[in-house]
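anyone seen this seq b4? input:
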Amino acid sequence: MERRRLGRTGLNVSVLGYGAGAVGGLFTKGAAADQERALSRALEAGINYFDTAPVYGNGESERNLGRALKALKADVVVGTKVRLTADHRADVAGAIVRGMEESLKRMGRDHVDLFQLHNPLTAQDAGDKLAIDIVLEQVAPAMEKLKASGKTRFIGFSGVGEPAALLRAVESKLFDTVQVVYNALNPSAGGPMPAGAPGLDYGCLLDKAKAADMGTIIIRALAGGALSGTTDRHPLAMQDVAPIGSAPDFAADVARAKKLEPLVRDGVAGSLTELGERFVISHPAVSTMLIGYSNLDHLEAAIAAVEKGPLPSTVLKRVNEDT
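predicted toks r here
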């Protein structure tokens, strides 16, 4: 599998990553044997970046991923996250340290490769939404201390929230990586926002991250599953998926995704999901793309899609025009 440089970290990561979150659900609700079987197949295919977080299944994703990696003696790149609540504002640094220790305990590890802030970034502080000034003045220094102590090799943040705040975080160059919302329904992190398209304009965040030599980790590559073209959900998957940066609701995203079906009928791709996955990896500033899986078939399909490589430029133009 193709590997790409994760920005200034110098790590070479598989273009397809493993998202162990609740949207797919295998690592939050699945059977241990199925989890290990999927992990083994991912390793066999060359996937070497695995992403988790404490909020995925209330710690179950971290526990299950840690167990499976240990069982398979896997030497891979692992990233987890920390999310601050309103109660943590009185001691941001302390909350970050505690979050790290709790994650390491659940995973059975002494360090992770990447530790990321999981809050939406905004101008004004409000509950789960974290003010960018707090991020730059308190979160980043606390995370740097964790790097110095050897608990994490690199630090990053999840690129959700207000685009202006996200761009400030990128331009600060305080973080090594950024998770970027980028998909065929909202490609604005990688180029101009299509005329009339709903959602947030991420202002070419990918190119700006590349200019700052940051690694880019794509999230919502399939818009939470909307780019499957159906509202049906696998039993293990998150049943209600709130869109991030795209249409007001999941059904509206699915309706927009179905506008791309003529491309599949024309033989451009074997399915809408393949089209969506290959669309993402076509951008040269993408380091790795996270896909969430409910079963082994989902994983196999994603592996097959990325092995076909990026889409031709003529097809990319049609995708932007059709959505």
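DSSP finds twelve helices and twelve strands in the chain. The CA atoms of residues 233 and 239 lie 6 Å apart. kinda curious what u guys think
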